[in-house]
């Protein structure tokens, strides 16, 4: 989920309008660096799971990401050892000893090199055991669901079906359907499934009755969160069905990877933005006979993530700024970049779907009884996790709009309207969650897809 730059802050940025540097070298050196996730070797026994839940899955096995550390416990009640299609096998069943795979491990460099072997830092890392297990759990759910989504989503499907397909899969894999009070706070969606098309860059998900159908020519940002005990994975990718968009996607993928690479303990936020910008602007894309520079969307940011809170207090710009703030040990960052063929600037548009209770919500008396009861529902079901109108619908709430709008105007709940660039433009996004562990940087949401 994207963080927005306040308007006053933006004025301080010195942006060279239309600048489109030709530093191709910067781009290629940082682009799509290989990931070094600890894979166990690809299973070659594709056909040996015939008795499992995966048996019903038939043809779609070829691109499946297999669980990497399977430990068969004798006497296990169920014998599913591979994920089903759609994904419905509990992650805790695929990894019975909670030995969820790590993300990409990157050793610190330069003056932080000592951390990898430091006894003290290792000790600190070990203290984080529960935190890491929850994070690895959530990340593997994200990977399995998104890789299913990548091979399943096709033009002709409705956005509602796509969103529900992702959300029902996430809830099934963590084993919490979120239908009973408090259940969605244990594990489930970390925030609503963003399905933002074309010039819309972020924060679009269908509300009830939405009949929109994905088109062949669309550029769709798929941005969803998975949380386990409040540890949120925030990771996003872009889907297209026409080759002409490939340079746009390559620009943004490379820019995000450059940001991930620059991130580290003591790295300065403004400088990371500069590196991201340089990589992004080294690309251009030709659409319909016109060549467009790929511009970073300068009022969208990466951000820290706190327990149950998607936007922490630090922002990672995607253009050069003078922000000298440093990344620190223990920080969790969502590194996300957006590229655009439009203005490189977004504004609010369309009907709001995303909301979240503010963590610093003031204690104001609510006079409207519908607002009061809705606030209680939000507290019990989502806490400060972002939710959307469909999430209220599915737990049986109706006629809540007046109350919801009242909570927003009272300052207790924040609305996150869709963010759009110039009409007719195209925007793309890639995003990873990274942990600045005491010993190593972990790109926790890294997969073999992006
Ligand atoms: Co985000």
Task: Describe the overall structure.
The protein is of the alpha+beta class. The chain is globular, with a radius of gyration of 21 Å. The chain has twelve helices and 19 strands. The two termini are 17 Å apart. The protein has helices at 7-12, 24-30, 91-94, 119-127, 129-152, 159-174, 183-186, 246-262, 269-280, 369-381, 389-394, 401-409, and strands at residues 3-4, 104-107, 187-197, 200-202, 220-228, 231-239, 284-287, 290-293, 295-296, 300-304, 315-316, 332-340, 347-348, 354-357, 387-388, 413-416, 419-420, 427-436, 440-443. β5 (220-228) and β6 form a beta hairpin. The protein has two domains: 3-31 and 101-109 and 120-347 and 423-443, Creatine Amidinohydrolase (Alpha-Beta Complex); 354-416, Orthogonal Bundle (Arc Repressor Mutant, subunit A). The model is unreliable at 15-64 and 69-77 (pLDDT under 50). Helices cover 28% and strands 20% of the residues. The strands form five sheets. Strands 1, 2, 9, 10, 11, 12, 18 and 19 form an eight-stranded antiparallel sheet that branches. Strands 3-5-6 form a three-stranded antiparallel sheet. α8 packs antiparallel against α9 and α10 (369-381) packs across α12. Cobalt (II) ion binds next to β12.
């Amino acid at each position: 989920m994207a963080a927005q730059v306040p308007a006053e802050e933006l004025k301080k940025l010195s942006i060279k309008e239309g600048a489109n540097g030709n530093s191709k070298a910067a781009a290629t050196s940082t682009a799509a660096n290989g990931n070094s996730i600890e894979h166990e070797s690809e299973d070659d026994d594709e056909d040996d799971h015939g008795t499992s839940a995966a048996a019903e899955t038939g043809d779609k096995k070829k691109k499946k990401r297999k669980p990497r550390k399977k430990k068969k416990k004798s006497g296990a009640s169920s014998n599913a050892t591979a994920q089903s299609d759609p994904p419905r096998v509990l992650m805790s069943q695929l990894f019975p000893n909670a030995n969820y795979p790590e993300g990409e491990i990157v050793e610190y460099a330069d003056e932080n090199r000592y951390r990898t072997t430091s006894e003290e830092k290792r000790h600190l890392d070990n203290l984080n055991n529960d935190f890491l297990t929850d994070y690895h759990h959530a990340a593997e759910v994200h990977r399995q669901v998104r890789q299913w989504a990548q091979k399943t989503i096709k033009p002709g499907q409705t956005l509602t079906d796509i969103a529900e397909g992702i959300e029902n899969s996430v809830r099934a894999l963590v084993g919490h359907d979120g239908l009973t009070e408090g259940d969605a706070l244990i594990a489930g969606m970390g925030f609503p499934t963003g399905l933002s098309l074309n010039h819309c860059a972020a924060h679009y998900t269908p509300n009830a009755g939405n009949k929109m159908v994905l088109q062949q020519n669309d550029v769709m940002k798929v941005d969803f969160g998975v949380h386990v005990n409040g540890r949120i994975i925030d990771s996003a990718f872009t889907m297209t069905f026409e080759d002409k968009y490939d340079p746009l996607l390559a620009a943004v993928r490379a820019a995000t990877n450059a940001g991930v690479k620059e991130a580290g303990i003591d790295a300065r936020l403004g400088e990371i933005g500069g590196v991201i910008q340089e990589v992004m602007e080294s690309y251009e894309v030709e659409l319909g006979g016109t060549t467009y520079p790929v511009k970073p969307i300068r009022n969208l940011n990466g951000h820290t993530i706190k327990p149950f809170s998607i936007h922490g207090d630090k922002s990672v710009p995607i253009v050069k700024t003078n922000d000298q703030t440093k990344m620190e040990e223990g920080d969790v960052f969502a590194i996300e970049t957006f590229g655009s063929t439009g203005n490189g600037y977004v504004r609010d548009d369309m009907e709001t779907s995303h909301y979240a209770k503010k963590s610093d919500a003031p204690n104001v008396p609510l006079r409207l009884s519908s607002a009061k009861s809705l606030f209680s529902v939000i507290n019990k079901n989502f806490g400060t996790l972002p939710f959307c109108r469909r999430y209220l619908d599915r737990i049986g709430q109706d006629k809540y709009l007046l109350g919801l709008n009242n909570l927003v105007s009272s300052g207790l709940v924040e609305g996150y309207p869709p963010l759009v660039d110039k009409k007719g433009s195209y925007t793309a996004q890639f995003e990873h969650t990274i942990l600045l562990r005491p010993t190593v940087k972990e790109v926790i949401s890294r997969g073999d897809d992006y």
